[in-house]
C-alpha cells in the first residue's frame, strides 16, 4: 500500500511539474522582431534591463530616428528625441507589445546615456533621496538604474511593484565615495530590504570606469561601499553582470577595454568573490576578443551552468553565447545566436530563462538587407 501511495505521489508531482525535453546541443528555435520600423533606431537593452515573471517578460531599450552617420557609428539622429521604452511579452517571448512610460511621466530619458535629445513634452522631477524602504522581494518587483554621463555625475534609480506598469522615482543612486557613478541595472536581491548592486564608478582621473560593489540592508535608505572589482584600469572596466552561486559566492563578468590602434584589446573578463562581495579574485577571460567591445549578460541556468551572451563587434559580426560548467573557471567555445549582421553596431544583450528552460535573449542588430537597427528576441535551447 505504501509503495502504491509513493507511485501515485510521484505521478502527481510529474503531472504538476512536467519534464521538458532538451536538445543535447544548443540550438536557436526562432527570432522575433520586438521593435523594428523603417526610419527608426532601436538599441541597447543592456543599458535598461530585462525581467521575467513566469511567462511574462519585460525589456527596456532606446528608440530614436535613424540617420546615416557612417557604417561604424550608432546611426541615431543626435538632433531628434530618444526615448526609454519598454516591450512586454505575456507568452514567453513569442509576441511583444510596446509600451511608452514617457507618456505616463515615467522613465524620462532626461540625463542618462543618451545619443539623441529629450522630448520637451516629457519631464520628470529632480532625483530625490529614498525615504521609504524598498521591498526588494515584492513578487512583482523590478528595478532599473540609469546614469547621467558616461564619465560621472549622479545616477537615477527607479523601481516598480507592478511589473513595470508604473514606476517610483527617480531616486538618487548614492556616490559610494566615487567621483561619479555610471549605474546600469545589475543587482542581486538577498532579502526584503537587502540588495547588492554592481556599478561602474569614475576613475581617479574622472573618466570611466571602474567596477565596484555596494549593498543596502535597510531597503535603500542607506548604502555601503563594499569593494572594487580589480585594480584601477588604464582603459576601463564597465557594465558588470553578476550571479550568486551560494550565500557567500558571487561570479561577475565585465566589459573591458585597453589600448588604441594596433594595440587595442576589447574583451570580457571573469571575477569571483567568496566573501559575499567584500573582495574579488580574477578568474580568466570569458571572451578574449569582442572586436570594438560589448557588454556581457550572464545568468545561472537551471542546470547550474553559467551562460554569458554578448555581441561580437568584429567580422563576421555576430551575437554569441558561451557556457561554464565549473563556476566560471573555464568557458566553452562560442555558440552563434545570430549572424549576417550589416556591421559592428549590435549586441548589448539581456537574457532570461523561462520556466520551461528555454532562453530568451534580446539584443539590437541590423542586417545586410536594411540599415535600420532592430530589437530582436531570440528564443533558444541551451542544450544539456
In short, what is this structure?
Helix content is 4%, strand content 42%. With 384 residues, the chain is mainly beta.
Structure commentary:
- With 384 residues, this protein is mainly beta.
- The chain is built from 1 helix and 25 strands.
- It has one helix at residues 2-16; strands at residues 27-35, 40-43, 49-53, 56-65, 83-89, 97-99, 142-146, 155-160, 168-173, 181-182, 187-191, 194-202, 208-216, 224-228, 236-244, 250-258, 265-273, 281-287, 297-300, 306-312, 318-324, 335-338, 347-353, 359-365, 374-381.
- The strands form 6 sheets. Strands 2, 3, 4, 5 and 6 form a 5-stranded antiparallel β-sheet that branches. Strands 10, 11, 12, 13 and 14 form a 5-stranded antiparallel β-sheet that branches.
Name its key features.
single chain; 384 residues; mainly beta; 5-stranded antiparallel β-sheet; globular
Mean pLDDT: 92
Poorly predicted runs are 1-19
Structural class: mainly beta
**Strand tally:** 25
What's the alpha carbon Rg, rounded to whole Å? 21 Å
Q: Termini distance?
A: 37 Å
Order of helices and strands: HEEEEEEEEEEEEEEEEEEEEEEEEE
Number of helices: 1
Percent of residues in helices comes to under 10%
Strand content: 35-45%
Shape: globular
The major β-sheet equals: 5 strands, antiparallel
Give the SSE layout.
Layout: H1 2-16, E1 27-35, E2 40-43, E3 49-53, E4 56-65, E5 83-89, E6 97-99, E7 142-146, E8 155-160, E9 168-173, E10 181-182, E11 187-191, E12 194-202, E13 208-216, E14 224-228, E15 236-244, E16 250-258, E17 265-273, E18 281-287, E19 297-300, E20 306-312, E21 318-324, E22 335-338, E23 347-353, E24 359-365, E25 374-381
Antiparallel strand pairs: 1-25, 2-4, 3-4, 4-5, 5-6, 7-8, 8-9, 10-12, 11-12, 12-13, 13-14, 15-16, 16-17, 17-18, 19-20, 20-21, 21-22, 23-24, 24-25
